[in-house]
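Hey all, sorry for the wall of text incoming. These are the two entities for the joint prediction.
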Amino acid sequence: MTDSTAGRPGGDHEPTGDFSAGPESRGPTGGDRAEPRHRVIGTPPPAEARSMLKPPPPGSPGGPPPPPERRELPADPSDPVRAKRAERIVVACFVIATLAGVGFIAAYVLFPVHSVSRTLYSNLALGSTMALVFLALAVGAVIWVRHVMPGVELTEQRKPLRSSDEDRAAFNKTFEEGAEASQFVRRPMLRRSLIAASVPAVVAPIVLLRDLGPLPRQSLDHTVWRNDMRLLNYGANTPIRPADFASPGGMITVVPDGYQDDFNALAKATCIIIRFAPGQLQFTSRSAPVPGKVVANWTVDNIVAYSKICTHVGCPAALYEQTTHHILCPCHQSTFDAARGAQVIFGPATRALPQLPMTIDAQGYLVARHDFTEPVGPSFWERGPSS
Amino acid sequence: MKAITARRRRPAAGYAVVLFGLLLAGLSYAAVTGMGAADAASHGITGQPLVAQGRTLFNQSCANCHGLFGQGTPNQGPSLIGVGAAAVDFQVSTGRMPAKEPVAEQGRKPVSYTPQQIRALAAYIESLGGGPAIPSAAQVNPKGANTGLGQQLFVASCSQCHNFVGAGGALTYGKYAPPLTSSTPRQIFEAMLTGPEAMPVFNNTTITPQQKRDIIAYITQTRAEPNPGGFSLGRVGPVTEGLVAFLGLLLFMVFAAMWITAKHGKAHD
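and here's what came out:
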């Protein structure tokens, strides 16, 4: 406070005694107030108050020795034998920390990092030596405090948090003088232009919210599946004949021909096809999809295609069990019954997996009839309250 | 009780209580989920034609559930007509069959039969109605296969259940996809070909024998990959590693806090 006063412009106007005077000038404010006012609350009292380092009173060298002061903190541990033993342990801990620190530097120099598998050992050595440094230091410090230092309980009284009236008055005075000296009130153009300058800086982050858009509009309603587009066996990327996929209980992931490397397209268009034994699929009699029923003329030889994108939050749902015809989504355990139109039988999903309409082309390969008749994947706002 | 009362204020008592609780939790978990080992019975029937020997073995150990002619029993054992020698070799050489008890998923356990007896059983089941044959050693040899393509195929068709490195995972209603860590190349081939239990069938025209070799090469090569950090933790993914680190460090912190704040010695007067 004294520094700021001296460094202030206009220092020739000497402040009042409140700023420069010592604690003596503050008048009687109770016993606690006798300390210097820069004392931070919660810190120990100054050295002379604790009497540990207080010099002998003047004239004592010649006179009788002063009576022993009552110490707040004893100088010796309560159990010297134990303290001696603890000291050795602490020293050992610090030696270990030293060696581990040297080991860290050595490991940094010695271990090569030219490949992933070599970096593994470098990381292991660096991490464990550094952990050992900190652990040994911490253990040593705790043993030091617990067994070498004397064990005493000290109670220290807190000072009142409220500043003295003099301090508060001085602060108000400083603030008002500072406000005047800054010319903030007196020069309106300065003030207004500053306020105007801060407005765009506050608005700018709000403008950035624009990046959350644009709205998906129709892009979530459709996939790249088109009429006559072949289904490729994903991975091998080969077209599929129903005769090649003839074993009941078979299940593979399929992707639209031409988009096998387009991950944005595959994120919506990926499907699984499942081969059933005759009589296992439960068909609907109509051509429109009915929840819980397979559209008959969208299947080929008991092969049915479903979207692989879970209708809950869009994880790939492809854990197919050929015995129970369950399709399980690994993220939240939504379970779909593949034999009954992939309707939900367990879990948080609310809609059946959309069925992809299939037929075969002139060469006998599985192709799509057209796109899905409903949006695939999780629900979204613009989808509306449809089933 | 008196001894406990006398010692309960000892500094070590807190640690002992925490350790005891952890031990109790671990033991009760092990008791609930523990599995006994099955005896590997050895039947020494030799000197008969393979099919006849297989029929004898079948009548002894399999017919109870699968029926006297392999036609199956409702809710007990499926029909074995047409499953082929590959299915028999997979089920019996992994110890899954003969089953010990009817559970949601038959796990790998010690093998009950000698390789010769398994061949006999396979020959008998094959005689009932054909089906996929046991692959030859050359068909399942991963040497020289395309591991990169194998990975692509594995990720597309296998990893959803068996995890990216073949560590296995959970399915519905108690079923699970087993880890592939101890499967032999022949067993992996047979599993893809026949679709044991809930596993889908990947026949030789969907995934060609060459592609199956590529997948086998990927699975076997992945086993040899180093574990960053030194421990595999089941290789089931970062969640496990985070959980282990979290729990381990939490335990360490609890003990450290107990140690730092514990009372010690006599208070200085």
